[in-house]
Amino acid sequence: MTISAAPLIYILIFVAVLFLVEGIYLTVFGKSISLNSRVSRRLALMEKGGNREQVLEQLRKEMSQHMSAKGIPLYSILANKAQKANIAFSPKALVGIMALLAVFAYLGLTIGTAAALPLRIAIAVAMGIGGVYVWVNNKAKKRLALIEEQLPDAVELMVRSLRVGHPFSSAIGIVAKEVGDPLGSEFGFIADEAAYGRNVADSLKAFAERMDMQDLRFLAVAVSIQQTSGGNLAEILEGLAKVIRARFKLFRRVKAITAEAKWSGMFLSGFPIVALILINVIKPDYFDGVKDTAAFIPACLVVAVLLIMNVIFMKIMVNIKV
Hints:
Blueprint: H1 6-29, H2 41-47, H3 52-64, H4 79-85, H5 91-112, H6 117-163, H7 168-178, H8 183-195, H9 200-211, H10 214-229, H11 233-257, H12 259-282, H13 296-318
């Protein structure tokens, strides 16, 4: 029995691409960009000698640079994700990393496989772009999940601060000092903007739109209404904290209930691809008897379309909205 290692080599090269981009990110920025750091990145930058204005300018640049660079070729596909993940790399640096990873993948394919030159180039480019996209997408998901988890505690901390007599801007500053990243740096940025004269409600609204998170919109609207109409902000935020926590528990419950259906969908979507890879590894000549026939290429295209449709429909079926 002949065994082909080419499919496994493709998978290993793509995994190496993912590890490489993470390694580059950690090498350049160190632990200051850690998502779950107890000391927020804003405080870490200030401890390194940056004054408040310099840190504010640097954080503002990092938060807005991705959406302002949508015109860069190939970059628009991940601009939204990069903004939500708050990737510290500049857009040009990310495009350069795509090119670097494509070269790395090409060298790996050249050394490990005997594929034709056009195929190696196409796969290398796909791995370079796809590797960065998968990495940024995972970073965005983790960051949004951490913000959702930290938000109820942050709002309750603001409630306690307001009840002991602190103004709302000071309550925001206390959250920035006491809460770790990613929410700590975001609230620190809002506190710094408030210190330089920007309305806190406007900063919260901009933060909510940048993260595209409903709970943050609730917070921004509550603060805006209180500023316009008055009222006990501590009581408003206490009720909001209960609502956010209840929503968070509901989402977790729905996630647990639908876990079996989601894993079934992932299995049904991934099994045909895994089976195809294993066939090519275990018996590379399995399709030799039919690959030269006129119907082989059209049949492959039909199977590919059906697989893509299967993935899309399974994702729709298990994506339950609450």
